[in-house]
Amino acid sequence: GEFQENDSKLRDRDYEAAAQPFEPTPGPLYGYRVCYGKLGLSRYLSHLEVGRLIDRAGRRAKWPIAYSGGFHPHPKLSFGPALPVGVIGENEFFDVELTEEWSPEQLVASLNDTLHEGFTIHSAVRLKAGDLSIDASTDRFDYTVTLDTKTLLAMTGSLDKLIADLEHRISNGGWMIEREMKDRRKTVNAAEILDN
Description:
By secondary structure, the protein is α+β, with helices and mostly antiparallel strands. Helix content is 32%, strand content 20%. It has seven helices and six strands, in the order ααβαββαβαααββ. The chain has helices at 2-11, 15-18, 47-60, 104-112, 134-137, 149-156, 159-171, and strands spanning 30-38, 77-79, 89-98, 119-126, 176-180, 185-189. It has a four-stranded antiparallel beta sheet, with helices on one face. The protein has a two-stranded antiparallel sheet with strand order 5-6. The longest helix has 14 residues, at 47-60. The radius of gyration is 24 Å and the shape is elongated.
């Protein structure tokens, strides 16, 4: 029957080759740091969904991406710190390694041609040997919090009162926030990181 015919084809397969891990893409490889924004409805994409979106956009753009080795090779893409779902990201970053040298302008244009509305590639720069990873080179995050008038009035009564409360906290030793890490608690003075 049909099952027996398929079974016999499987027996002829080279199981030795199938049991070997894939080798990573050989060099030379060309690294790029890409700056992008996710606005509008794109802000509801999770970190993993953003990774898949960029990978698919790159495939549509026919970028020559390098792959890791092992039994489950992955595209050589690495992203900066994850944004919470629902937060707009104006200047987020990812690194990618290609097997061919592309100009940064070519990389930006080809990705923007394949991405949907609300997701934009702003720029790309060629990485040099020894450049730090995104995580290692990030020393601060800038957030903008926008409150509508109704929420603001419900919280404090007025904008002037909110400003006065913040100034009072800052002038009286700061605004201590306790942050829970994996294995410890860390106390941070939020007043030191607030910017007008």
